[in-house]
C-alpha cells in the first residue's frame, strides 16, 4: 500500500512540475477552466461534457509527454543533434494537433449557444 501511495505522490509531483515550469501547461489549464465554466453556464449535455473532458485530457497529457521527451532529450545530449530536434518537434506537433482538435470540439459544442447569446444581447 505504501508503494501505491508513493506512486501517486510521484505522479502528482510530475503534474505540479509541469504546471510550475511549463507556460503552455498553465495556458491549457486556464482554457480548460474557462471552457468548464462556459459548459456550466450553457448547461451542456453529458455527451458534450465527455467530448470536452476527453479533449482536455488529450491536450494536457500530450503537453506532459512533450515535457518528458524534452527533458529526456536534453539529458541525452548537450550538443545540437538533428535527431534530438526531430524528437522535440514531433512531441510539440502532437500537442499542437491535440490543441487544434480541442478548439474544433469547443467550437462544435459552443458555437450555436454563443450565437444565440449574442442575438439575445442585441435584442
UniProtKB/TrEMBL annotation:
Binding site for a divalent metal cation: 70
Residues annotated to bind substrate: 63
GO molecular-function terms, A-Z: ATP binding; kinase activity; metal ion binding
Gene3D superfamilies documented for this protein: 1.10.287.3610
GO cellular component: plasma membrane
Gene Ontology terms: biological process: phospholipid biosynthetic process
Cofactor binding remark: Mn(2+), Zn(2+), Cd(2+) and Co(2+) support activity to lesser extents.
Domain of life: Bacteria
Cofactor(s) in the UniProt record: Mg(2+)
Membrane-topology annotation of the record: Multi-pass membrane protein
Subcellular location field: Cell membrane
Binding site for ATP: 10, 70, 88-89
TM segment ranges: 27-44, 50-69, 90-112
Keyword Transmembrane on entry: yes
Entry keywords, A to Z: ATP-binding, Cell membrane, Kinase, Lipid biosynthesis, Lipid metabolism, Magnesium, Membrane, Metal-binding, Nucleotide-binding, Phospholipid biosynthesis, Phospholipid metabolism, Transferase, Transmembrane, Transmembrane helix
Catalytic center residues: 63 (proton acceptor)
Family, as annotated: Belongs to the bacterial diacylglycerol kinase family.
Protein name in UniProt: Diacylglycerol kinase (ATP)
Amino acid at each position: 500500500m505504501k508503494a501505491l501511495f508513493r506512486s501517486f505522490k510521484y505522479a502528482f509531483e510530475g503534474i505540479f512540475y509541469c504546471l510550475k515550469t511549463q507556460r503552455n501547461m498553465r495556458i491549457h489549464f486556464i482554457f480548460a477552466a474557462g471552457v468548464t465554466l462556459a459548459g456550466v453556464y450553457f448547461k451542456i449535455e453529458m455527451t458534450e461534457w465527455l467530448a470536452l473532458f476527453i479533449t482536455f485530457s488529450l491536450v494536457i497529457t500530450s503537453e506532459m509527454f512533450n515535457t518528458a521527451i524534452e527533458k529526456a532529450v536534453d539529458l541525452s545530449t548537450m550538443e545540437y543533434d538533428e535527431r534530438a530536434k526531430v524528437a522535440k518537434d514531433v512531441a510539440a506537433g502532437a500537442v499542437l494537433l491535440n490543441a487544434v482538435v480541442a478548439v474544433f470540439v469547443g467550437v462544435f459544442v459552443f458555437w450555436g449557444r454563443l450565437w444565440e447569446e449574442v442575438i439575445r444581447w442585441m435584442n
